[in-house]
Design goal:
The structure is a single chain. By secondary structure, the protein is mainly α. The chain has 9 helices and no strands. The chain starts with a helix and ends with a helix. 38% of the residues are buried.
């Protein structure tokens, strides 16, 4: 029963995405709405990203120093480990799990509210492809801005560790900075950016799907929002494993 239901949901999602990725009727309207979604979904998320990244970067640096206190391990390993953890996992996978709660619930509740108040039905009556008109700007806007959020997260997290080195005596600044520079691999940055683009698409499309097919009233909008966040989070974890296997051979 669960497998049948999952396959039916996946088929419905594929049909929904086919409607979403059709050619917009008016490119000017699509461009204007995309810019609005970049501002709402992307730029408005910057304060949250900065706050979380600062604290997580500081915590990673502190925990690395507490757990790498062996004389056999060089002290600059704290900066190196902090950098690699941030680049490989936190700045893309963990950040997107956090944004799935903020952005995903926002998208699902907004579209779900339009469904229960019959605004989507009104668009369909006027001959507008409502899935394309409402969802495509959200997906494109969030996917385009997600790499910027990841870069901000990377920089801010490393600054958080740097502040630990400056204001505490856990590790010296010179050792931390040297660890950031040691054995740096540029591909790790591109790896994080590639994963973030895939995760951004999953968040926006899955949340939109659950919001678009809401049935009932305000209570069902809340359920759809929760289901969208849960489903996108599970898919992020699944694709995290797949992309890690494919990109880090």
């Amino acid at each position: 029963m669960l497998i049948t239901s999952s396959l039916a949901t996946f088929g419905r999602y594929c049909l929904f995405i086919r409607r979403v990725f059709s050619i917009p009727d008016r490119w000017r309207v699509f461009g204007r709405r995309t810019i609005q979604e970049i501002s709402k979904l992307g730029i408005d998320s910057i304060p949250l990203v900065i706050i979380i990244s600062l604290f997580i970067g500081a915590v990673i640096a502190i925990q690395m120093q507490l757990n790498i206190s062996s004389p056999l391990i060089p002290s600059y390993s704290v900066g190196l480990a902090t950098r690699d953890i941030v680049l490989l996992e936190f700045s893309n996978s963990i950040l997107c799990l956090i944004l799935a709660g903020k952005v995903g619930s926002n998208i699902a509740s907004e579209i779900g509210t339009m469904r229960v108040t019959e605004q989507i039905d009104a668009l369909e009556i006027m001959g507008v492809n409502s899935a394309n008109y409402l969802v495509l700007p959200k997906i494109v806007g969030f996917v385009l801005f997600m790499p910027a959020l990841v870069i901000i997260c990377m920089a801010t997290s490393l600054i958080g560790g740097f502040l630990v080195a400056v204001f505490t005596d856990i590790i010296t600044v010179s050792r931390y900075v040297y660890g950031l520079q040691a054995m740096f691999q540029e591909w790790y940055v591109w790896y994080g950016l590639i994963k973030s683009v895939v995760f951004a698409y999953l968040i926006a499309s899955v949340a939109s799907f659950y919001g678009y097919y809401v049935k009932g009233g305000a209570l069902d909008v809340g359920k759809a929002s929760t289901n969208g966040v849960v489903a996108s989070s599970i898919l992020i974890l699944l694709f995290d494993v797949i992309l890690t296997k494919l990109l880090l051979q």
